Amino acid sequence: MSSPLNDYLSTLQPIRDPILLKMKDYAVQNNIPIMEDVSMAVLLSLMKLKKPQTVLEIGTAIGYSAIRMAKACKECKIVSCDLDEKRLAIAKAFLHESGFSDRITLIYGDALDDLAEIEHNAPYDMVFIDAAKGQYEKYFKAFSPMVAKHGMVVSDNVFFRGMVPGIVQPTKRYRTVINRLREYNEYLVREEGFETTFYPIGDGLAVSIKTD
Ligand code: SAH
Ligand code: MG
Question: Given this model, what pLDDT does residue 162 score?
């Protein structure tokens, strides 16, 4: 969500890496919703503290967040899944160009249908949910059992354009998505075995830490 605070924060830590800049440019030109850098910064600092060895990402797009996570976490291996074949092909090229192909494994398919390969690489120290906004509860239910003890699930866009908290009036087009995200946020709070904190940054980030 664009806000004076987010705008200010994004000027503090501008991206300078040429490949990342190229990816951001590609995303803008092709209307691909990559994660905002201000919330990415929070995610990466959590990763630097937690040092996950294994990460599952639901929603690769062109690999922007995957590459940023791999850069921040020198030892971690990332499995990232997307059902959009064209985007995954672009992601593959960018991974190759950035030299992270060996630490990021791409899986083509619907995360909810093609669980076998995702399951095969489990458990994960961190699961990052950033795919279809109306499906978050389904992803959480499918993948939170694959989270290692004291691991975490991070969900992006949980405040979707400020519409979820009602800062911005939900538009008709997004009504269902907004209702589902509201239900999801409440579900996260209720969910036993996880403690969730919401970060009002970027498009809203929920960090759910596995407690048992
Ligand atoms: N994490 C990326 C952005 C992901 S955009 C970044 O910040 O760089 C969301 C992606 O989720 C889209 O590319 C879309 O194709 C994918 N997606 C949507 N539903 C999915 C599903 N059920 N399984 C796998 N990928 C899905
Ligand atoms: Mg996102």
Answer: 96
